[in-house]
Amino acid sequence: MAGVEAIEQLTHQLSRLPGIGRKTAQRLAFHIVSMPEEEVRELAVAIFNGKKKVHFCPVCGNLTDMETCSVCSDPSRDQSIVCVVKDARDVNAMERIRDYNGLYHVLGGVISPMDGVGPDDIRIRELMSRLGSGSIKEVVLATNPDVEGEATASYISRLIKPMGIRVTRIAHGVPVGGELEYTDEITLMRAFQGRREV
Prior knowledge:
By secondary structure, this protein is an alpha/beta fold. It folds into 2 domains: 4-53, RecR Domain 1 (Helicase, Ruva Protein, domain 3, Orthogonal Bundle); 63-193, Dna Topoisomerase Vi A Subunit, Chain: A, domain 2 (3-Layer(aba) Sandwich). Helices cover 42% and strands 11% of the residues. It has 7 helices and 6 strands; from the N terminus they run αααβββαβαβαβα. The protein has helices spanning 4-15, 22-34, 37-53, 88-97, 124-131, 147-160, 185-193; strands spanning 55-56, 63-64, 81-85, 103-106, 138-141, 166-169. It is globular.
């Protein structure tokens, strides 16, 4: 059948993307080849431009296609607070809640000795350099509540506390709709420790 090799190659390339299995890749490949040529061209250009134009913000490490990201270049943001996150996806998650108006610092990973990632392999040095300016009064540690995220938060906290800067950790606990009966002990403990007055 004509074109099968091209579809197979397209399927193979799509299946290399995270979260895309062989069947989904094949479905996407068939969809793409059935699209109008102009739409396929627009998709290809968007992918290429995304790769070519997007880079890390030199200030915070977030992804941007400008000189500095929109958060760092926004003078209305609270310049006295920095939220430390693992990667750019976490910045997007925090921005969705629309309740945080400070700055960010993207680490580009977390400390994970099992994977050979140490403190020098992520952007901790850059964070400490930013904190040296004296304008930041609080650092919010918003790494994931897993072993690596907790180890990273603990390490950063120990570095910052002697500087006299307030260090806080986002609360972790029982999700909305969750049942206490099925919640693990660590999550319950964190929920209890993060309790607040109502």
